TrEMBL record:
Residues 191-495 form the Sulfatase N-terminal domain. This is Phosphoglycerol transferase. It comes from Lachnobacterium bovis. GO terms for cellular component: plasma membrane. The keyword Metal-binding does not apply. GO terms for molecular function: transferase activity. The chain crosses the membrane at residues 12-31, 65-91, 112-131. It is a multi-pass membrane protein. SUPFAM superfamilies: Alkaline phosphatase-like (SSF53649). Pathway: Cell wall biogenesis; lipoteichoic acid biosynthesis. Pfam families: Sulfatase (PF00884).
């Protein structure tokens, strides 16, 4: 009885192993190819995206992944059927009296078939993992999780404990013509903030002539390239080449988190929980909390569902932001209840809502921080709106990949025009004189249509500071600035003084102090961020 039960258990695990290993191996091969061909993101970003809830997201990319896996899934079923058919064929019983000890022979054949099948399935699965690693290099990521870093103990500066002050302000004399009396007032020492995160906005969109990656006759961001020249834009070279992403901030929420906290997003097993927790990252002090303490009205505007990836929860609990998202637009009847274009509503609507909100909040007798996130340039290919032209989709129309490149280029060019127009509008408003506009690409784009062959060093994100209160002491060229440096740099641009010039792992790029990436070297700095830190988890979560 025990023997028969043991055989039954062995058979059960054998069949499970054969089915699972062949199925997984069969889909690993094509998905690895698809990932390598279409996507360029870190393992951290991929895990965050895969483990985040689909609610509030654009499911287009999910559909593409499923379509890429379907043929392989069908193929795996055929392979599994073939394995079991071969086993049945060679071990079937024959009603032939010439065969002696037929049961024993059948048992031996079955054992041999199963051993061979098991080994072949195991080899097939191992080869698929090796192939996947050659495309994605997940082993390097796994190895780094067993290495430990002390960077947070040695280099982190808590904004809550840092000394952050305002300028004393400028005394302005005014005369009352009626009374003939002179009064002295103090001008506002710090400025308002408009922070614009532009989805997947890289400096590679400019032509090589201006420091980008496109052919010299193809500048997709002529307007924003000009804006960068006329204002302050930090660059890794002497031309238009922006700031570097690091581990933990090369996807949208990771970038938002890093630029406002001075930390990489390195919370394990919390990728799909951030929106469900009452308090997320409660040990972290952010830009929003600093400005909230200073009496700023704060608002976050996005064209998608702010619940996605926990953005709403993060902003609400780290600065008491008011939220304006797709759900808000539906409640206000600005769009129909079932309206959806791409991730939500188009950037065309986003900018119109931003103008209305800025007009409203600028009339308040308090400084403001208005943060917004665009989404039309999100991968893959972006979301075409009625304002998008067809210049490049007509030019690149041979083959699917070239067509996709043309469509993406048109969307980027449209985003450039819309963003430039919005900045021009801001400049005509009464609040502009006392407002800093910070523009930041959230991360490099996640597909390869416009950046195929470009090195990571070239693929920097756009940044620009308009109407800054200060000028960079070391200049804005040939610097290595990372997303985490944006926290102290933004505060400095608004007129705040930071003792020591550092917050989080970030450094004020307007100061004479070197960033950690400059001090340590970018590659070494990034390697430290890839490592595991229990201190990080204990202190910040």
């Amino acid at each position: 009885m025990r023997v028969s039960k043991l055989k039954l258990i062995r058979s059960f695990f054998y069949y499970i192993f054969i089915v699972v290993s062949i199925f997984l191996a069969s889909i690993i091969f094509p998905l690895s190819n698809w990932y390598k061909k279409n996507i360029k993101v870190s393992i951290d970003a991929a895990i965050f995206t895969l483990r985040s809830p689909l609610k509030g997201s654009d499911t287009g990319i999910t559909e593409k992944v499923i379509l890429a896996a379907i043929p392989a899934a069908i193929g795996s079923l055929l392979i599994i059927f073939l394995v079991f058919f071969v086993e049945w064929f060679f071990t079937r019983k024959r009603n032939d009296l010439l065969f002696i000890n037929e049961e024993a022979k059948v048992a031996r054949k079955k054992k041999i078939c199963r051993i061979v099948s098991f080994l072949l399935a195991l080899i097939y699965f191992i080869v698929s993992l090796v192939y996947c690693n050659s495309k994605i290099d997940y082993m390097s990521y796994a190895v780094m999780q067993f290495n430990h870093t002390k960077i947070y103990e040695t280099d982190y500066i808590d904004p809550k404990e840092a000394i952050i002050t305002k300028d004393k302000g400028v005394e302005v004399a005014s005369v009352d013509d009626n009374a003939g009396a002179e009064t002295v007032e103090k001008a506002n020492p710090t400025k308002n903030l408009i922070y614009i995160y532009v989805e997947s906005f890289e400096t590679t969109y400019a032509s090589k002539k201006y420091g980008g990656y496109q052919p010299n006759n193809m500048n997709l961001i002529p307007n924003m390239e000009k804006v960068a020249q006329e204002n302050i834009s930090f660059s890794t070279n002497s031309n238009l080449r922006g700031i570097r992403n690091t581990c933990g901030n090369d996807w949208t929420f990771g970038s938002i988190f890093s630029s406002t906290s001075g930390l990489p997003f390195k919370f394990p097993n919390m990728y799909n929980k951030t929106g469900k927790l009452k308090k997320f990252a409660s040990g972290v002090t952010t830009l929003g909390q600093v400005l909230d303490k200073e009496g700023y009205y704060q608002e976050f505007l996005c064209g998608s569902d702010a619940n996605f990836a926990g953005r709403k929860q993060y902003f609400k609990t780290h600065g008491n932001y008011n939220i304006f998202d797709l759900n808000t637009a539906r409640k206000k009847k600005l769009v129909p209840k079932d309206y959806r274009s791409g991730w939500g509503f188009e950037d065309e609507k986003l900018y119109e809502y931003a103008k209305n909100e800025l007009t409203r909040i600028s009339s308040k007798k308090q400084p403001f921080n208005f943060t917004m996130l665009t989404c039309d340039t999100h991968f893959p290919m972006g979301n075409r709106c009625r304002l998008c032209g067809d210049t490049y989709s007509k030019k690149f129309n041979h083959g699917q990949e070239e067509c996709n490149k043309g469509l993406t280029a048109d969307v980027v060019e449209c985003a450039d025009r819309q963003l430039s127009s919005f900045i021009d509008w801001c400049k005509t408003q009464d609040f502009f004189e006392n407002t800093v506009i910070v523009i930041q690409g959230d991360h490099p784009r996640m597909d390869r249509y416009l950046v195929k062959g470009a090195s990571d060093e070239v693929r920097t994100v756009y940044n620009c500071f308009i109407n800054s209160s200060v000028e960079p002491v070391l200049g804005n060229k040939n610097r290595t600035i990372t997303i985490m440096d944006m926290l102290p740099t933004t505060l400095a641009s608004m007129g705040f003084k930071i003792k020591g010039e550092r917050l989080g792992l970030g450094t004020n790029a307007f100061s004479s102090k070197k960033t950690l990436a400059e001090k340590m070297g970018y590659k070494k700095f990034n390697k430290e961020l890839e490592k595991y830190s229990q201190y990080y988890i204990d202190r910040f979560s």
